[in-house]
Amino acid sequence: MTDAAPRPTANENFLLINAFAPQPESPLVAVTRRISDCGCNLVEARVATLGQDVSVLALAVGPWDAIAKLENALNKLERGENLRILQFRTGPKPVQNTLLPYVVEVVSADRPGILHQLAEFFARRGITVEQLHSTRYRAMQTGADMFSAQVTVGIPSTTHIAALRDDFLEFCDGLNLDAIMDPMKF
């Protein structure tokens, strides 16, 4: 036999849902109603307005039959509403006791590739990006196009933090980025 993924327990089936709707309508109410009506529970949810659309990212958990019912309800919802829905089965987030949570904030004049360079810096060092929010905006005083990112990363506990911070600040200086890296405070 091959090493197959373990079967989820009867009440631990997960469905990842991403729903999009044009502003000002938000798919949040419709999606959360279906999750509740089908006997599932909401584990996590995020809402963001990107361009002309509102996006809801939700993780639902429940017994296998409730998740199957939710899948069908979401398919019907997509056909009947002005929504686009992507859904698939997933599992719980693995516990990672060896990662240290840090928050990184970056601001700079906007130019192509900044986010890619940041992501590559972390990836080369085995640092995971846990959450990210980036935006482009115009500076009030000058009208210059600006880039801003807030990133939560997981740093392996074996990493020498002072050396990483020095490397990161040198990396940012080379790209003319204003940045900080601090431990997450709960």
In short:
By secondary structure, the protein is an alpha+beta fold. It has helices spanning 28-37, 64-80, 114-124, 161-175; strands spanning 13-22, 41-50, 53-62, 84-90, 99-109, 128-138, 145-156, 178-183.
Describe the 3D structure.
This protein is of the alpha+beta class. Helix content is 28%, strand content 41%. The chain has helices spanning 28-37, 64-80, 114-124, 161-175; strands spanning 13-22, 41-50, 53-62, 84-90, 99-109, 128-138, 145-156, 178-183. The strands form two sheets. It has a four-stranded antiparallel beta sheet, covered by helices on one side. Strands 6-7-5-8 form a four-stranded antiparallel beta sheet, with helices on one face. A hairpin with a 6-residue loop joins strand 6 (128-138) and strand 7 (145-156). It is flat, with a radius of gyration of 20 Å.
Protein topology:
Blueprint: E1 13-22, H1 28-37, E2 41-50, E3 53-62, H2 64-80, E4 84-90, E5 99-109, H3 114-124, E6 128-138, E7 145-156, H4 161-175, E8 178-183
Antiparallel strand pairs: 1-3, 1-4, 2-3, 5-7, 5-8, 6-7
Helix pairs in contact: 1-2
Domain ACT: 103-182
Main location: cytoplasm
Subcellular location: Cytoplasm
